[in-house]
Major facilitator superfamily (MFS) profile domain-containing protein (Drosophila navojoa), 585 residues
Amino acid sequence: MVNQASSIQTVGGRSPMPSPQLSHRHISHASPKDEGARTPAAPAAAPGSDIITDVVGNFGIWQLRTILIIFLCKIPAAWFMACIIFTAPELYPRTEFTCDTSYLNSSSSSNYSVSDNQCYVLDDSSGSRSECEQFTYVSSFDSLIMQFNLVCLRDIFIAWTQYWHLFGVLVGGVMGTKMMLGISPRSTYCVGAVAQILCGVVTGYARDFSLHCAFRCLSAVCCAIMFTAGQAIFTDITAGMHRIGAIILYDTFWSIGVIMLPTLSSFFSSWSLIYVGITFPTVMLIVLLYWTPDSPRWLLRHAVDHHSIDNVEQMVREGAEINDRCFKIPPDFRQQLEQLSERLKTAPAPAPWTQLWQGRRAKTHMVAAHLALAFFVINFMGMLLNIRSFGRDYLVPNTIAMGFSEIIGCFLALHFTLKHNKWKWQCAGTFNILAGMLGCMGWLFTGADSMDAELKVSLWMIIATIPKAAVSCAQSMLLACMNELVPANKKQLFVFSVITWARVWLLSAPFFNVLKRIDTALSLTSYSVFSILGGICTCLLLTPRTSTAPVMAQLEQQEQQDKKEQSPLNAPVWTIESDVHNTRL
């Protein structure tokens, strides 16, 4: 619904008093033919445009404020996922933990000795060997490992706790989507934030390992509910390439959280206090909800009375005022909102899952998108946790380097989408193939014992951060642009299917890090192979050249039109030729 450029409206909906000069200038003796030639054609409405987009615009200060507030929820989500790096740092045998043999019933004829790695007790008289069951710890940091004796063969349970976190992300994504069928995204976000605070504190003070895993899972559920509901809000109030750019850059705040985590952890001497430290900043997110709007189209779709329409009208008017677009509000604004509400309520149901396989290149896109995102999310999470393999002494710089590589990858995805939109999939896929090949080169120096330790770790990080940036690039591009691959009635189900499938396979990510016990290069190579396979699948994607894909030329024309319409003073003014030198107001 494109408003007439000459109909300038105030916030109250009343037309301003016309100026005498403007009234005089509209008195023209031009013929209808000349007038038609002079009148600029109204710009075509963007695909999917409605009264809300027409009034608040594709992007502005209002949307930017909302996006920045919602993006903050990614920071505690990153903290809860990656905190295991600092709550369970590796302990060194003999210096930081030793086997305590006092639990054994020794006799005068039995002598016991302990293996060098402090994991086994040897009976010198019989020659038998058994696992050590009791340990003594000497460390200035009270870690999760010390609390639950997760040393030696029990360190597999570190991956087990991470499994439950990722399972919570899977459940939380599905739960958040289902909750928004009856609860507004803003309310869903608030529920997730409050529950996350409660679950996070219990997770930190749980003294039973099963209880700790259970509440770590619940904390992840709450994090996933928050960023799922948050994305539903900012994707509803943005449009065009601004919406795609916002989704691509959503994970940059995740990376900022990863970069901040070492500094935050350094303030605490216990793993329990780290959990408290990463939990309570969520209180600020609840406070910032005051400046966070709800999803206007969700409210219209579920409107039950005129009060719901009133809330949306007030919200959109506030957005138009902040964006300096009050002149775009038409006189029948309320009626158009009611009409939009009726259209949303009577919209056809989404296509069933079986129809996702029907259409040109549909099977290729279904298989390739599902496999690609599965490979990438395993790589994205697993490679971050894999930095524990490079040594405890280098955790801080390695974590920060991983965070910056993720940010670089997100901006590369934005660059490919804006500047190479036609071949963006192939650019991201090729980047992952080449980066994955580089990551497999760790075997060249993994056995070089004579190499300087710091140089070796630096080489490990170089061949790890480049694939990490490539995976971040492709993953963010898939999350933002994969709905272009299908028609409008299949978008929502297609995205839900791909993301849920990927999160199921994400559950395996922590266990690939166990391969470091064989060789550090083996765990890194496994992730590099995933990067190569994901890159191949991404190269098979091709956005249809139809109206479902964003067309750059049309978007540039729309942006130019938005710039012209920023002020009512830029509206076209008709003049007549006379001896008087008229000026434009």
In short: The chain is about 60% helix and 5% strand. Residues 97-138 form one domain.
